[in-house]
Specification:
Helix content is 74%, strand content 2%. By secondary structure, the protein is mainly alpha-helical. It is globular.
Length: 480
């Protein structure tokens, strides 16, 4: 690996176009996670497959995103971040076109996996912003880019519902392909190619080991409710995945040029931030899963009788709130530091869930609780990459932010599984359907509260570190 850890100098000019393009790209990449939720109940019929098999259309995207973030981050450090951003955009184009042309399960899963791999755009974009933005704008830009993880999901549901209701379902993927083409062109023409490549050897065995271990463990988590948590298949995937990850970790520690520097990742400041990321990611996904479901339940079943589009519109202010609070988070980080900012964000998220526990009688009440919780996510998500990048060398920033993104994905995946277990553990029969009780929804909100507050407590234990990267790339020479 190259020993050049010094920040590269970027071209001169205004940094704002770069920030806008990267945030838009992150927004579209994150939108892929909620793109097909409006047509999820119809997927078995549309693709001519079983309900169980159809769930892979969603699982594939989650797995692709989890795998892509640390790998894309490392590739960005090695070969230059602008190149990897273009490559991620191309993956999104290809994946979207494959899905748009698909009418059967296997090609749809392939396309959705490629769409998930495009999530590597987000950690690479965050680390590039840290390099090219002047100091006064760095925290604001990083905060806005981090918020796209939540904003994309927040606006994706109503947008996808409108497209699915107004046009053929394939239009969802043609629209995503069109947006991906725009992103690829903008990244290629607007985002500067900063000379930030450190070179080195790509750890292919490490990438394969991480992918196999993660996929195995996360498949067990996402499919456990369908297969049975004590079934041989679930346990085999989960235990096998853990064993592979342990072997992978041992292998990585012996590499001079590892995919993920586990010694750096084991530093208390980095390790505790990543553990907090799991808790905050858990809290964010619980909100996205449970609140729309309660809104969409028929009133006769104790729900609010909202359509998918109506539920999405009620949830949209929460998604937008994450973006609104990005500059607030930046101000807090400048004044109080990343640790306090992350702890405040996690606490506000917990208060949002606590409010939802008592506000379950009308859509506007849940929307209000969602706004509070989403404000917490916006504050917290923005602080995490800042904490990470302040504790690692600039040459490892992409990989470190990618690993942090992976830990958020682990939290969201765990949340989906836990919420599914809770909602199916207390049900009543309605016209042959098992409907979750109000007590089940309340328990979900309590679990979300606890997860968020645990994240806040972990955050407060993060030790202060000497800043390794006082001057972002381009501090002296703003980008063109």
């Amino acid at each position: 690996m190259s020993t050049n850890d010094a920040p590269a100098k970027s071209p001169a000019g205004s940094p704002m176009p770069t920030a806008v393009v990267l945030c838009f790209g992150g927004l579209v990449a994150a939108l892929m996670q909620t793109l097909i939720i409006p047509i999820q109940p119809e997927i078995p019929v549309l693709l001519g497959t079983s309900i169980s098999n159809a769930s892979w259309v969603i699982t594939a995207t989650l797995l692709g995103g989890a795998i892509a973030m640390p790998i894309a981050g490392r590739l960005g450090d090695m070969f230059g971040k602008q190149r990897v951003l273009v490559a991620s955009s191309i993956l999104l184009i290809i994946g979207s076109v494959v899905c748009a042309l698909s009418s059967s399960l296997v090609p749809m899963i392939v396309g959705r996996t490629l769409q998930g791999l495009a999530m590597g755009f987000i950690p690479v974009g965050i680390s590039l912003l840290r390099e090219v933005m002047p100091p006064r704008l760095t925290n604001v830009a990083v905060s806005a880019m981090s918020a796209t993880l939540g904003v994309g999901g927040g606006i994706g549901l109503p947008l996808s519902a409108w497209i699915a209701q107004s046009f053929d379902w394939h239009a969802l993927f043609w629209v995503s392909a069109g947006m991906a083409v725009i992103i690829a062109i903008l990244v290629f023409t607007v985002v500067p190619h900063v000379d930030d490549a450190i070179g080195g050897r790509f750890d292919l065995p490490g990438a394969i080991g991480l992918a196999v271990g993660l996929c195995s463990a996360l498949i067990a988590v996402t499919k456990g409710n369908d297969w049975g948590w004590t079934s041989g298949t679930t346990l085999g995937f989960f235990i096998g995945g853990l064993v592979v990850l342990l072997v992978w970790g041992t292998f990585e520690l012996r590499q001079s040029d590892p995919l993920v520097d586990l010694r750096t990742s084991a530093k208390p400041a980095v390790l505790l931030t990543n553990i907090a990321a799991v808790a905050v990611g858990f809290g964010m996904m619980a909100q996205a899963v449970v609140m729309p479901m309660l809104m969409e339940l028929p009133t006769v079943a104790g729900g609010m009788g909202q359509s998918i589009l109506q539920a999405g519109l009620w949830m949209m202010p929460g998604g937008l709130m994450m973006l609104v609070f990005a500059p607030v988070s930046a101000i807090m980080m400048n004044r109080f530091g990343g640790k306090i900012t992350l702890a405040v964000g996690a606490t506000v998220l917990g208060l949002g869930y606590l409010g939802a526990y008592f506000l379950m009688n009308a859509p506007w009440q849940l929307a209000l609780a969602s706004v509070v919780g989403s404000a917490g996510v916006g504050i917290g998500y923005a602080a995490m990459p800042t904490l990470i990048m302040g504790a690692v060398p600039m040459s490892e920033a992409g990989a470190a932010v990618g690993l942090n993104g992976l830990m958020r994905s682990v939290g969201t995946t765990l949340s989906s599984a836990v919420m599914a277990v809770i909602l199916t553990s207390s049900t009543f029969d309605l016209a042959g359907r098992d409907i979750p009780t109000h007590d089940a929804f309340k328990l979900c909100f309590l679990v979300g509260t606890v997860a968020a507050l645990v994240g806040a407590a972990i955050t407060l234990a993060i030790p202060a570190v000497r800043k390794l990267n006082e001057e972002p790339v381009g501090a002296a020479d703003p980008i063109r």
